[in-house]
Amino acid sequence: MEHPQRNNDIAPLKGVRVLELGNYIAAPTAGRMLADFGAEVIKIERPRTGDELRNWRLYAGNTSMLYRTVNRNKKSMVLDLRTEEGRDIVLELAAKSDIVLENFRPGTLEKWGIGPEQLNIANPDLILTRISAFGQTGPLSARPGFAAVAEAFGGFRELVGDPDRPPVRVGVSIGDSIAGIYAAFGAVMALFEREVKRGGPPIPLDHRTIDVALNEAMLSVMESLVPDYTAYGIKRERTGGRMEGIAPSNAYLCKGGGSIVVAGNGDGIYKRYMEAIGRPDLGDDPGLQSNAARWQRREELDAAIGEWSAKLTVAEALAVLDDAGVPAGPIYTAEDIVKDDQYASRNMIQRFSVSTGEETLDDVAFPGITPVIGGASLPIRNLGPDLGENTAEILRDLLDRSPGDVDRILEDMGLTPALEKEIR
């Protein structure tokens, strides 16, 4: 499933090898980011079932589009980490890698005999990036927890939804994704330090260990939530489509059922905004010239804007606001995104033929690579691989195993040699 216009000209992480021991979304997101920019990422999956993400939002076959997306540009190798041979192979791979990614419960790698000390013996330069619910230390470190728990623990969930209803979650695993982004940043930061200090004293293992906690990743994006409380006793509340202390900024219904988002809260923008909706009286009102004052009268402002938007279609409303220089945009669905000229112009929608495990679907759109280098998204080299697709290649070419040894391991892992050739 390689992209027909494969381009390896821009690959800042080319030559970096990453061993991914992660399931679900957090560590695989970090691995995806590193792979997107040229790193060779070897994803280790359990025999026969693989990463559980293969079955999340599975609408057909045996491999979901979610798995294909999060694990793009990687290689898949099947190993049983419950066996001595599987653990030995992991240590062999670690010896030839730059970064290990993992998101097991703290203590799991240690229990399996492939913890930090063993990995460090195998490779004293190795960077170990660990993602867990609450971090590797502290009274909650041994607790299991998915992103939903971390989002609540980090203060995020309390602010999502309407004030008169219980908190809700957003429609994606945002805690996992943010933690994965931090993990990728941490890994590259440690890689940079290692290269800068090469030739000097060895970097201690604890300096090469990146510890990302899901709840701390969420806390880090909560802006001034904690300082505002400790300084002024302010307790933020859910505000629906608004942002606390900022007005007018909200979503508004238009004629025909569509909606727009308008961020007209800047002092200079506000007056133009009110003129554009035919309410210059609100724009000139002395009691509405500061953001704090507008926040106090947010219901009045939203009612006036909603009355205006309800008379226009999305396109008509956006044309008026664009002419007035007011930041606004449509609320897109997936259907809108795949048709959008802006995304297309930056190669942010890339299309592939994709196997579900039962059939091949043509012209399936996937999101491009962020951030952009060179003016447009880099091309995706391959989608998330089939289970064990690269096992033989890695055993043979990287670990120098004999053909007989390769065949035996493949059969032990439920991948017959014939199947492996077929996959490849």
What can you tell me about this protein's structure?
The structure is a single chain. The chain is α/β, with parallel strands linked by helices and 424 residues long. The chain has 2 domains: 17-221 and 349-389, Rossmann fold (3-Layer(aba) Sandwich); 249-335, formyl-coa transferase, domain 3 (2-Layer Sandwich), CATH 3.30.1540.10. Helices cover 39% and strands 14% of the residues. The protein is built from 19 helices and 11 strands. The protein has helices at residues 26-36, 65-70, 84-95, 108-112, 116-122, 147-153, 174-196, 214-219, 225-232, 267-276, 280-284, 291-296, 298-309, 314-324, 334-339, 341-345, 391-398, 403-412, 417-423, and strands at 17-21, 40-45, 75-78, 99-102, 127-132, 209-213, 249-253, 259-263, 328-330, 349-355, 360-367. The chain has a 6-stranded parallel sheet, with helices on both faces. It has a 3-stranded antiparallel sheet with strand order 7-8-9, with helices on one face. The longest helix has 23 residues, at 174-196.
Which SSEs are present, and which pair or pack?
Elements: E1 17-21, H1 26-36, E2 40-45, H2 65-70, E3 75-78, H3 84-95, E4 99-102, H4 108-112, H5 116-122, E5 127-132, H6 147-153, H7 174-196, E6 209-213, H8 214-219, H9 225-232, E7 249-253, E8 259-263, H10 267-276, H11 280-284, H12 291-296, H13 298-309, H14 314-324, E9 328-330, H15 334-339, H16 341-345, E10 349-355, E11 360-367, H17 391-398, H18 403-412, H19 417-423
Parallel strand pairs: 1-2, 1-4, 2-3, 4-5, 5-6
Antiparallel strand pairs: 7-8, 8-9, 10-11
